[in-house]
Amino acid sequence: MKNTFGSSVSVTIFGESHGTAIGAVLDGLAPGVPVDEEFIAHQMDLRKAVGSISTARHEADKVRIVSGVFNGRTTGTPITFIIENQDQHSRDYGELAYKARPGHADYTAMMKYHGQQDFRGGGHFSGRITAGLVAAGAVAISALKAKGITIGTHILTCGGICDRQFSDDLAGDIAKLADSDFAVLDDSVRAPMTARIEAARNEGDSVGGRLETAVMGFPAGVGEPWFDTLESVLSHMFFSIPAVKGVEFGDGFALADMTGSQANDSFRSSGGTVRTSTNHNGGILGGISSGMPIIIRTAIKPTPSIYKEQDTVDMRDMSDTTLTIKGRHDPAIIHRARVVLDSAAALVLCDQLALRFGTDWLVSEQ
Amino acid sequence: MKNTFGSSVSVTIFGESHGTAIGAVLDGLAPGVPVDEEFIAHQMDLRKAVGSISTARHEADKVRIVSGVFNGRTTGTPITFIIENQDQHSRDYGELAYKARPGHADYTAMMKYHGQQDFRGGGHFSGRITAGLVAAGAVAISALKAKGITIGTHILTCGGICDRQFSDDLAGDIAKLADSDFAVLDDSVRAPMTARIEAARNEGDSVGGRLETAVMGFPAGVGEPWFDTLESVLSHMFFSIPAVKGVEFGDGFALADMTGSQANDSFRSSGGTVRTSTNHNGGILGGISSGMPIIIRTAIKPTPSIYKEQDTVDMRDMSDTTLTIKGRHDPAIIHRARVVLDSAAALVLCDQLALRFGTDWLVSEQ
Amino acid sequence: MKNTFGSSVSVTIFGESHGTAIGAVLDGLAPGVPVDEEFIAHQMDLRKAVGSISTARHEADKVRIVSGVFNGRTTGTPITFIIENQDQHSRDYGELAYKARPGHADYTAMMKYHGQQDFRGGGHFSGRITAGLVAAGAVAISALKAKGITIGTHILTCGGICDRQFSDDLAGDIAKLADSDFAVLDDSVRAPMTARIEAARNEGDSVGGRLETAVMGFPAGVGEPWFDTLESVLSHMFFSIPAVKGVEFGDGFALADMTGSQANDSFRSSGGTVRTSTNHNGGILGGISSGMPIIIRTAIKPTPSIYKEQDTVDMRDMSDTTLTIKGRHDPAIIHRARVVLDSAAALVLCDQLALRFGTDWLVSEQ
Amino acid sequence: MKNTFGSSVSVTIFGESHGTAIGAVLDGLAPGVPVDEEFIAHQMDLRKAVGSISTARHEADKVRIVSGVFNGRTTGTPITFIIENQDQHSRDYGELAYKARPGHADYTAMMKYHGQQDFRGGGHFSGRITAGLVAAGAVAISALKAKGITIGTHILTCGGICDRQFSDDLAGDIAKLADSDFAVLDDSVRAPMTARIEAARNEGDSVGGRLETAVMGFPAGVGEPWFDTLESVLSHMFFSIPAVKGVEFGDGFALADMTGSQANDSFRSSGGTVRTSTNHNGGILGGISSGMPIIIRTAIKPTPSIYKEQDTVDMRDMSDTTLTIKGRHDPAIIHRARVVLDSAAALVLCDQLALRFGTDWLVSEQ
User: In angstroms, what separates the C-alpha of C136 from chain A's closest C-alpha?
Assistant: First the structure.
């Protein structure tokens, strides 16, 4: 399977940056989930380009649902989201048919698709394709929320500037992020982060960062010991999002430098259930959810589209040459990517819950 | 699918730490791959407990192949590896039926399996289950090697002590690792790392570390843009290995702090093919292999079995209590895990190659 | 996975009979396959309602391709086909929200989707959904044809009237079917079959029949012994097509009454290859293609939408009641279904070939 | 995926007729299902060769469970069944390395595995491999039975002699079959069927037949409209069983000759639920279970191993030649295949139930 992911709840995505339309098919979600088109539009807005820190390409990103919704609710059959492309400037991309942009998928796409790929604007590799994922994810996020499961992602670092970590008031943090158009927990880092992105743009360069995602209210006992651990399926999805180069759970790489006595999370009885005193393991033990918040951190590499001259190869004669990228690009995508991660996580978790508790659990009373 | 992974080439694993036998079924590998039982035994030895830095449990780990091999070669039908358990001390585990060990999967297993799981020695969650993966992986490693694709993993850090990174002589580094029973590139770090592990053991504690894996000779153009990116499928497999809590490719999390002009790998023409001047992206662009070495770093948390008293809950009456773990455990597993990563990577890559080039590519002449 | 089928080459379908649009996403087909929009339109026409022997609902069935095609060829990324619905008369269906039509999926859909399904015109269960399959299948059929693999389906029986079987000139038979709007091999049975369908319509009743599909030029050695035998994957796809209730290969059920000496197909050497003297096994032995024509016969039940009064249950109060179906329906679908089977078979076979020989085989020179 | 089938509950099979051992891995079955080793042995006995109407090869078929069972119950992790081969006479098979037996998979295996396959006794294509399926299926059958779902298969026809069909007392019929070593409903047909098989044996020939399977108590609302219809997944599994060449549901191929008014099953209210007056659709409508008995008929071709001289090709020089099969073979397998179908159906249905209602449904109280 290539552009389809998930087992009981699955998503299929399609489209190219400069093609006719992009979109997604969301299949297997429980019947009867309310579909809130305003919330979908709100999520699409979070992904959109904003002001001086994003690309100058502006798309309405109006989502048309052509199947799977009846009387405002999911039917249980495939939900199809279509987003027409409108603001393409394809003439900027002629040279890319034979000159691969460093850091982009142009060269590997040539090797895989033998030059048949739609190379304009990154084609099917473009971050634009995440728009379909966000539309589908919005329905998944709503469904989870109705069961008390909430998700939030913030910009932990951008261009070297750090946000604070999630606090003990995780519910408050997630609520704050839901309405924020620049997802930081500490408002005072917004201005310096934005300034860092603008500085990169002014230099014709770009910056990356780290995103931190928290999932709250996810029940214990979901996941597998092998091979579909919760970490496995979440990372599988996350590593398919353009620019993601690292994924860690709980304290992640920092755990490598701890001792067992530091890293182990003690169990304590709390109100009839079991909780851990700390959460170094990020809500997952042995691949299975523990009921504690799931914590995921993701590395986003700097946008590879920069305006500085770069070395590349002319594939027509295999000669060394240079390339200066034209077109309209993001000096950073981290502020746009956070909603993509929320959506991606929601889709994976809906699938895991359906596999564990059945296809109707998301609309069950209990 | 739960304990089966892969599509064209797949592996199914089974067994519990204190059950009768463990093992694996490797399916879909090309017919005609030589099966070298000595090499399998060699790989099993690399995974085995060694001296004072490992568990006192000693298993012969003799691998019996009961299907799928005929006249010393793979038939193309499922190859089954069976390893009998011998040196179990199950009486050490009685308390674990109701007291979850911190950092272990005991609690989440209870929530998933309602107490029906075989809790002795971690049961199906035990690192012992990786023995089947190593047996299957040995055949995959041989098959890849015959096509010029080699894999090596070294202990990048352990308990805070660092090995050097892979050098420009990657072939030499990988060759060195293949024969090493303690996989470091810089021989001078072996003694301090071993000492650190022994110190942890003497304190009744444990240590973790980071592993770095390199794959050389893997062809360009393999992988998918969505959702089965090469990073996705490799991380899916890696995150299913016990104790793995972080996975990154190329410069991984460090990329988050770079600018685009620092992170982009320029393309250069070299002997009729395209190479990059640097390899910050770790051999994968847009989810597809570039022909450059694939570089993966993995965080291994410290072994959760420590001998210090820890807080836990008595699940029989949900009261807070303490637990002191008995049994024989590893103060570190990082030196044993490296061959598991090699094996896991080999299985994933064989699958990807078969999907891309067909089931017979591994035994093709070219 | 629900509405997605296939592994290396897959198809996802979506839509409801009276929704906004229906369609399909075809993923994984080799890059560089020419996409002939005229041929797609031709195939859509074969599926369309014709004259007095079909429904009075008339849809233009114009296929819009919104992704995956660039410069007239497949890119290798998902191809999305969208067909807008236009001629719905949804007011005819109000009663169906609580009265299940005998022979239809209304009742089972209620049990699965708890009344949330779009019940108008059969919703997602409608034969109309096959239009997406035909659009996707048209590209697959073209791709196969370029490699010398052709497919044809004829109406073996309809309402008790029999066509002749495939002759020794199978290539001629398949060519004849490709251009026929009523797929029979013996032209003299067209009139009586049509008359039988019209008689059923006049009686407010319907008829079914059997379809026979032949695939020519398919290479030997494709398929699996377990579980993905060629029969398994073809029947899996065929049994998902509405109204199919039986599938057999080669002599199928008739083999049950033969002896081994009658049923076995002897091997003979012929022009450097091996052929069988007879083809009782329909081109598949042990789940794997033999290089002989693949022969499949499919039972199509009579259209369940009839105009006679029928017994049913009022689900609102679980009382017995009657139902007289309104709306526009087909007295037979067998003449429309044949192109659906061709399409379905082509999609399965492209997937099997890609799994066996790699993703590029369909566009390879050899 | 090749030798693994199922999604939430899956089975992997392995082994060759003359290899060391055969077996199966059953994964994903709910934790806490009692494992009755006597019942497994009973089912294995039903599959075994009996007297003059079966092969002279006699295997103890003792099943060793090496994982996934703890304290007599399933753990929820993979259950591995191993059956050692004992009574092989491999010397009978030397010629088969280059002379394909008509009706067997020898030739197609050569084309797929390039001569690397274990050709002795049919290798991985042998009906012997179904022993693993029967062992795994026995656990599934027990689990279903505890939830009121029972399965029975009888020999509907053998060598032209017909058993009666299932009666209105379906529960009684299924109970009768469970204990019968020759599965016919009408005891008076046992002797003539047996005589027909013995006559075939005496002629060095073989016979086939049809099996009819009924499933009772299966809940309504399980299955999918596309592509995983209940017919699709059941036929997928059934067509992977050696010698199956046709599968039909309900009235199957006979439906093709009915009118809609004859074929439609009217709905009637009955004790708070909905039932159909007739069951022409075999318990499945629109791919989803209706709560009525599921009825499947399967065509079994005559055993291809016959002792008459047959035409074949010597693959060494591609010359026409003849072959006279040696070894010990079944003049019929239909009486042995019935328990294979029961097992296969049980495995598929457990998977479908887990997908629909969650992994624990089989052990839930309700």
Answer: 14
C64, with CB counted inside 10 A (0-12, 13-18, 19+), is middle
Sign, Cα dihedral of D182, D187, D190, D193: negative
Asked if B358 reaches chain C (Cβ–Cβ under 8 Å), the answer is yes
Closest CA to C231 of C143, C156, C298: C298
Q: How far apart are the CA of C260 and the nearest CA of chain D, in angstroms?
A: 5
Which tokens is D205 given? 């020939």
CA atoms within 13 A on the CB side of B339: 31
In this complex, the residue of D108, D231, D265 whose CB is nearest that of residue C221 is D108
C touches which chains (3+ CB pairs under 8 A)?
Answer: A, B, D
User: Which residue of chain C has the CA closest to B222?
Assistant: C359
The distance from CA A135 to its chain's CA centroid, rounded to whole angstroms, is: 12
**Is A78 in Cβ contact with C15 (below 8 Å)?**
yes
Cβ-based contacts under 8 A for chains B and D: 178
CA distance D260 to C332: 9
Stretch (H or E) spanning C274: strand C273-276
Q: State whether D252 and C299 contact (CB < 8 Å).
A: yes
Q: How many CB pairs below 8 A link B and C? A: 21
The residue with tokens 């002897």 is C266
Tell which of C4, C7, C353, C359 to mutate to test the B interface (max B CBs under 10 Å): C359
Select from C225, C355, C361 the Cβ nearest to the Cβ of B8.
C355
- Cβ of D229 under 8 Å from any chain A Cβ? no
Would you kindly state where each structural domain of chain C is located, as residue ranges? 4-363
Q: Where are the beta strands (DSSP E) in D217-307?
A: 244-249, 267-270, 273-276, 284-285, 288-289, 294-300
- Substitution target in B25, B222, B352, B357 with the highest count of C β-carbons within 10 Å is B357
Tens-digit pLDDT profile for chain C (366 aa)? 799 999 999 999 999 999 999 999 999 999 999 999 999 999 999 998 677 777 777 778 899 999 999 999 999 999 999 999 987 766 666 788 899 999 999 999 999 999 999 988 889 999 999 999 999 999 999 999 999 999 999 999 999 999 999 999 999 999 999 989 999 999 999 999 999 999 999 999 999 999 999 999 999 999 999 999 999 999 999 999 999 999 999 999 999 999 999 999 999 999 889 999 999 999 999 999 999 999 999 999 999 999 999 999 999 999 999 999 887 788 999 999 999 999 999 999 999 999 999 999 999 986
d(CA A44, CA A58): 12
Close Cβ partners of D300 (under 8 Å, ≥ 6 residues apart): C256, D208, D209, D210, D211, D243, D244, D245, D333, D334, D337
The complex's ipTM? 0.97
In terms of Cβ atoms closer than 10 Å to its own Cβ (0-12, 13-18, 19+), residue C21 is buried
Between CA C82 and CA C66 the distance in angstroms is 7
Q: Does B162 contact chain A (CB < 8 Å)?
A: no
| Residue A91: exposure state from Cβ atoms within 10 A (0-12, 13-18, ≥19) | exposed
Q: Please judge whether D22 and B67 are an interchain contact, meaning their C-beta atoms are less than 8 angstroms apart.
A: yes
Q: B67, D16 in Cβ contact below 8 A?
A: yes
> What CA dihedral angle connects B321, B326, B327 and B331, to 10 degrees?
90
Probe site for chain C from D163, D196, D235, D245 (most C CB atoms < 10 A): D245
| 64-93 in chain A: CB under 8 A from chain D | 77
With an 8 Å Cβ cutoff, are B274 and A107 in contact?
Answer: yes
The domain defined by D4-363 folds into Chorismate synthase, AroC fold (3.60.150)
C207 bridge partner residues: D259
Backbone Cα Rg of chain A: 21
